[in-house]
Write a structure and sequence with these properties.
Layout: H1 3-6, H2 8-13, E1 21-25, H3 29-39, E2 44-48, H4 54-60, E3 65-69, H5 81-90, E4 95-100, H6 105-114, E5 118-121, H7 126-156, E6 158-159, E7 162-163, H8 167-179, E8 186-189, H9 196-205, E9 214-218, H10 224-232, E10 233-234, E11 246-247, H11 249-252, E12 257-261, H12 268-280, E13 282-283, E14 292-293, E15 297-302, H13 306-311, H14 317-323, E16 326-329, H15 340-354, E17 361-362, H16 364-372, H17 378-392, E18 397-398, H18 405-408, H19 412-419, H20 427-445, H21 450-457, H22 461-470
Helix pairs in contact: 5-6, 15-17, 16-19, 20-21, 21-22
């Protein structure tokens, strides 16, 4: 419990827990004496009479709160406002309370915009100031504790570049750790957007080839006439435009790892050549006459049913068994939906920081709606959505109304939250807004014709005209 709950004697008795330090910045000695008497049982006090280097000074002294008289110094009557802004920018955990002799309401608004938790005008009720200060410090401390807990949960759920603590992901982590140190070929399977390249990189990072080349080739990204030379390399004059000898991706991976994404798109002739390389550990460039000895580990990825393709002759069965030594199946996001809050937190941190935007959060109703979504694009779809939301949402908390319509129409939770917020709503006003929306839409589709609009809404023309007069449409 806080000192405000236990009383000053309990606060002083708890010598093992040091009192928080509050910095008071003012030139008003009389006010300072009164304030010191009021606050000393609850906090430690340090006093400054200047704004100079205040941010560094408070950080070094491990100050928990600052009471800043914003019209203390200089010719500018509100010269402390930029100081408030700087303090808040440097430390989101500070408790900041501004003081001023100005009576204008605009000063309080400017202080709040600068980052103040509260603003007091002289003459100040020091008892009220004390209660406000202690409550703001408690709230900031709780927020900091929650943030530390979130960070700890995020770190505990991190495995290489993966984020997730669900059982399906724990199985993936275990599989990666078991095979990382070997040289066995690996086939990573999973829907688009589940993180197949992340899994390949995790295998490499934990294995003996971590410091060797990691060469990636997306087999579906290149036309058939280019992928052969990209994969196997070419000698000068091997084809039109081959003006110099070039090693292929297999050669570049010598000593390291070759990651072939979308391997199911390779043509049968290329599958045959790749199989020969895997069997002989030699590669021959296009137009070349010599074979180069090669040592690499092959990791492949696909979201195609290779077994069915092998059965129907679209994928070589012997190559399938060569690459399918150890399969790793990545779960789609809908099967690890418990990881959604952690993933959201992770992407919010990354993209808010990258865009210079204050940290945003996702409200409980919005998160519940997101948990009902099927996520066909998996984690990639989620990251793209978070990037969009931090740009388009003006407020700090992302709510259901900020989510895409396609997501809202699937979500009962979101529909309820929008129709009936926790604080209740005005029934007549909601009906009015719904009627206006229906009338406006019908008039738009009817190209302004009230008769056509009435037909779309299945009402008679006279009622349509009455409603348009009622709402000035």
């Amino acid at each position: 419990m806080s000192p405000a709950q236990n009383g000053p004697h309990a606060s002083q008795a708890s010598a093992a827990t040091p009192l928080p330090t509050v910095c008071i910045v003012t030139l008003d000695e009389e006010f300072l004496d009164t304030l010191r008497t009021e606050l000393l049982p609850w906090v430690q006090i340090v006093v400054r009479d200047t704004y100079e280097d205040l941010a560094r000074w408070t950080r070094e002294r491990q100050v928990s709160a600052v009471l800043l008289d914003i019209d203390t110094q200089g010719e500018d009557p509100y010269g402390g406002l930029p100081v408030l802004t700087e303090l808040r920018r440097l430390n989101q955990e500070f408790t900041l309370i501004s003081l001023s002799r100005a009576r204008a309401r605009s000063v309080e608004k400017q202080a709040a915009s600068a980052g103040a938790d509260a603003h007091f005008r002289n003459p100040v009720d020091v008892s009220e100031l004390r209660m406000t200060l202690l409550e703001a410090m408690r709230r900031r401390s709780d927020e900091a504790d929650r943030e530390r807990s979130r960070q700890q949960a995020l770190e505990a759920s991190r495995f290489q570049d993966f984020i997730g603590a669900s059982e399906p992901m724990r199985l993936v982590y275990d599989a990666i750790q078991q095979i990382a140190a070997s040289n066995i070929n690996v086939l990573i399977r999973g829907e688009s957007g589940t993180g197949k390249e992340l899994a390949a990189r995790a295998i490499v990072a934990l294995g003996r080839r971590a410091n060797k080349p990691f060469i990636r080739l997306n087999c579906a990204a290149l036309p058939e006439n280019l992928i052969e030379s990209e994969l196997f390399g070419s000698e000068r004059g091997a084809f039109t435009g081959a003006t110099e000898s070039r090693p292929g991706h297999i050669e570049l991976a010598d000593g390291g790892t070759l990651f072939l994404d979308e391997i199911a798109t390779l043509t049968l002739p290329l599958q045959t050549k790749l199989l020969r390389v895997l069997e002989d550990h030699h590669v021959q460039r296009l137009g070349g006459r010599t074979f180069r000895k090669i040592d690499f580990r092959l990791i492949c990825a696909t979201n195609e049913p290779l077994e069915e393709m092998a059965r129907t002759g679209k994928f070589r069965e012997d190559l399938y068994y060569r690459i399918h030594v150890i399969p790793i199946q990545l779960p789609p996001l809908r099967e690890r939906i418990g990881d959604l809050p952690l993933l959201c937190e992770h992407f919010l941190q990354i993209h808010c920081t990258a865009n210079g935007i204050p940290m945003k959060r996702i409200g409980a109703d919005a998160l519940a709606a997101m948990e009902e979504h099927s996520w066909p694009g998996n984690v990639r779809e989620l990251e793209n959505l978070i990037q969009r939301l931090i740009i388009t949402t003006r407020h700090q908390e992302i709510g259901p109304a900020d989510l895409p319509f396609r997501m809202l129409e699937q979500s009962l939770v979101a529909s309820e939250a929008i129709l009936l917020p926790d604080g209740g709503t005005d029934f007549d006003d909601q009906v009015r807004q719904l009627e206006i929306a229906l009338l406006t839409t019908a008039l738009h589709r009817g190209q302004g014709s009230k008769t056509a609009a009435a037909r779309l809404l299945n009402v008679d023309v006279q009622k349509m005209k009455y409603l348009c007069r009622k709402y000035s449409l």
